[in-house]
């Protein structure tokens, strides 16, 4: 999200603006060719299916377990144990201003706004930035699901309007834009669903899907790095019941992701020397995990020591990933590809999309 987006959103939200609520019914009644209406509805339904699969997957660390529902009159609902939350989508003048400012959407109190795409004469229910690219081509379901997940994360972790106000204050007084704390949890959601898509071979940014476990290892590396501007869960305030101290809950989730990669790699055939090195790194990772767990269990954990341990764990994972990359393990571990993870993505997850 660009610095001027919250300024635009805050100003425009105080003014009246024309808008269309995007629902399955409004799409079917839109002044657009039948094939366009059917394509938009099919894309939205497929995006909902992807979102629900993501929510139930180990990649989801930032949103509560639940499901999205698409209803004819109401549009989207996010249903969790705490109830059903409307995720209202509006295509409005405010959304047009957000797009002009460089963004894709902006969260408000009950949902988010998107922009009209095209000549400005099309029906907002179908020709909008949720379903259509700036060049007029159709958005793939993965992109639609990613945008919905990001904006839902804003709503789950705080009222959209007031979070925009907080974003504005940070931009004006602390000069924070891309590193705004308001974006930390939604940014984490974007990273998580991006790696989920890569694990299924749905990402357009890479030609092939990651091997089983690779995406989990990248995500575990990412969430353990204390210097990145993301905040992954699981978040105790969204979980019921609580299982322990917040830091310990997060540690369990992150370490489970790392083990999901380490274990199958160590069971496969490859260079004995490299496998021995990987086994040593696995042992070092478990040692740091134990030390970190003991710190979490203290009545008043030392934050600096905790971040130091987490940083070491992230470093061990990065070293293990690099070891597999450079050795290739005789193309046994990572398949027949020349370069399964591009060089500029080897030490972390792909950059999240801007709003």
Summarize the structure.
The chain is globular and about 65 Å long.
Task: Return the string of H and E elements.
Answer: HEHHEEEHEEHHHHHHH
Helix segment tally: 11
Name the average pLDDT: 76
Give the overall silhouette.
Answer: globular
Count of distinct strands: 6
Uncertain runs: 1-16, 328-355
Give the amount of beta strand, in percent: 5-15%
Q: Looking at the chains present, what oligomeric state does this protein adopt?
A: single chain
Cα-atom radius of gyration: 22 Å
* Separation of the first and last Cα atoms: 5 Å
* Structural classification: alpha+beta
Total count of domains: 2
List keywords for this structure.
disordered N terminus; alpha+beta; six-stranded mixed sheet; 355 residues; disordered C terminus; 6 strands; 11 helices; globular; 9% strand; single chain; 2 domains
List the helices and strands and how they pair.
Elements lengths: L3 H10 L5 E3 L2 H5 L5 H22 L10 E6 L3 E6 L2 E10 H8 L5 E2 L3 E4 L26 H16 L3 H15 L9 H16 L14 H11 L21 H22 L4 H26 L5 H25 L28
Parallel strand pairs: 4-6
Antiparallel strand pairs: 1-4, 2-3, 3-4, 5-6
Helix pairs in contact: 1-4, 1-6, 3-5, 5-7, 7-8, 8-9, 8-11, 9-10, 10-11
